[in-house]
Amino acid sequence: xxxxMALYLSMVFTSVVLFGCQFEESTVNKPSxxxxxxxxxxxxxxxxxxxVTLTMxxxxxxxxxxxxxxxxxxxxxxxxAVKENGIVNIANPDYSVDIINENxxxxxxxxxxxxxxxxxxxxxxxxxxxIYILPxxxxxxxxxxxEQV
Length: 149
Fold this sequence. Notes:
With about 150 residues, the protein is an alpha+beta fold. It has two domains: about 1-30; about 35-149, Immunoglobulin-like (Sandwich). It is built from four helices and seven strands. It has helices at about 1-25, 35-40, 70-80, 135-149; strands at about 50-55, 60-65, 80-85, 95-100, 105-110, 120-125, 130-135. The chain has a seven-stranded antiparallel beta sheet with strand order 2-1-4-5-6-7-3. Helix 3 packs antiparallel against helix 4. It is rod-shaped and about 90 Å long.
């Protein structure tokens, strides 16, 4: 009789523990995409761009963007990038992006361009230990800018 009672109590105890864990797991708040973007560092673009040069590294060909609309789009694209935490181990970039701002300062970024509706990756050449992820909308904007030339 004692064995049956001990077995019964252990089954009840195990059930209570599992039942309690199930409710705890469902109450965990997962951050929304918006919260993720707000909590993670973004690329700041507080100066106006004068010229943006997009160079395809393998071919060595360059496209120069200096009209107002394209520069505003590039500013929007760069500002949409979100810092990705972790160790960077990545292949050679597809493009080099040279940005000259209104103060004639030059900033060089590496760009791994995704396909349509895919994310892309940026890296500042002055900080090769950090990458920034561009959302698919920004990738599509870059592809559209390249097609327009």
